[in-house]
Amino acid sequence: MARKKKELPLLEKVTITDVAAEGKALAKVNDLVVFVPYVVPGDVVDLQVKRKKNHYAEAVAVKFHEYSPVRAVPFCQHYGVCGGCKWQCLPYTEQIKYKQKQVTDNLTRIGKIELPEISPIMGSEKTEFYRNKLEFTFSNKRWLTEEEVKEDVKYDQMNAVGFHIPGAFDKVLAIDKCWLQDDISNQIRNAIRDYAYEHNYSFFNLRSQEGMLRNLMIRTSSTGELMVLLQCKIVEEGELDLMKRLLTFVAERFPQITSLLYVVNNKCNDTINDLDVMVFKGNNHIFEEMEGLRFKIGAKSFYQTNSGQAYNLYKVARNFAGLTGNELVYDLYTGTGTIANFVSRQAKKVIGIEYVPEAIEDAKVNSAINGIDNTLFYAGDMKDILTQEFISQHGRPDVIITDPPRAGMHDDVINTILFAEPQRIVYVSCNPATQARDLSLLDAKYKVMAVQSVDMFPHTHHVENVVLLEKRG
Q1: How far apart are the C-alpha atoms of 137 and 78, rounded to whole Å?
Q2: Which residues are catalytic?
Q3: pLDDT digit string (tens) for 346-358?
Q4: Exposed/middle/buried for 411, CB within 10 Å: 0-12, 13-18, 19+?
Q5: Using one digit for the tens of pLDDT, what is the confidence trace for 188-214?
Q6: Which one, of 311, 284, 279, lies nearest residue 296 by Cα?
Q7: Alpha-carbon gap, residue 96 to 101, rounded angstroms
Q8: Is the pLDDT assigned to residue 1 strictly greater than 60?
Q9: Comparing C-alpha atoms, which of 375, 371, 422, 373 is closest to residue 395?
């Protein structure tokens, strides 16, 4: 006989007191810490507990008794369902305040190191339509909201293109308008959707791995260029012709697209790093510009998704590096060499290291098209490339700039940095928690001299944080 599931409590008239990680807020009920999405400090709510552990619980607000005076009205019709932009209910000034607190708390509680006064966070001038890249998923399993289920809404069309629902990998919320990217993105996605509906194209089944249309990536740039990449599974005769008919429609409907690409992906995942990207029309790349420098961006290239704030971020990193023109700089996790090329005019030599070979090729091209001849780039796993032998061959760096992924730096990389003994380290991070852990490992030899956060992602809890470390003694 199946064990009866324990009924979880309803907590009544609870006051939300603070903002927590992952875009959630928190409240305390006796000694229990409760994490709640889509509420803000000052809200008084009834909470239905969904998951309970010894010292914390996760809950959802089921009734509002009082709304916080700092609450904002969410502007997106998909708010609260798609899982993104969770802080739309917070005014932007409040978001900035809590992001600053998040950085400070992580560095002090996790890092446990001596810190200078932390500079005020640099907010984003644009809080809507600020992203230069979005990816949408096609699925034959349209997600129905609770309201649609309760009202027993019946859709003739259960295919959808949009975003994955958090916690449901095979369900996709149909997106009509997203406020993250220039509205041309909405126009292109919806036109492709309508054409696919009208011509009975099959949408991907993420469980059975069947169906033709899989993924859509759209990139915009400050130069006005536009990239569209359609990803499809092609297994039956005639499907490639169907895809090209769809691409022809897109090309004719949106002549402003400068790079129209496609990928045939018959794998079980949507990654394209190991696949050939085919050009249907235009170029295989677009360009970004910054201080007169041009950066080539291909379909597989990484580039900061908020172009305006990326410029501010790189200026902070360059300023922290304190370059005079005589320094050897190592740029770790260089991506397409944006930071490396950005600081190269103020350095004697810059060496960039990155895992993705295609990104390194873009980095080399970016140096060439900008007439930069004092950079070198190497592709490979950071812990395998950045070794004591590598440093012996290329020289000890005066400055190391590092911008690792969210997981932070591998212990071997940190140990090699300590062996290299640069005078300054500029640590750029999208995760202050793992950054704080790494800073504590560097603390014996390096002192934190400055901290500056740059908000790249309005309406989310994410922030980019730049820390300057200088060698002790």
Answers
A1: 16
A2: 430
A3: 999 999 999 888 8
A4: exposed
A5: 999 999 999 999 999 999 899 999 999
A6: 284
A7: 9
A8: no
A9: 422
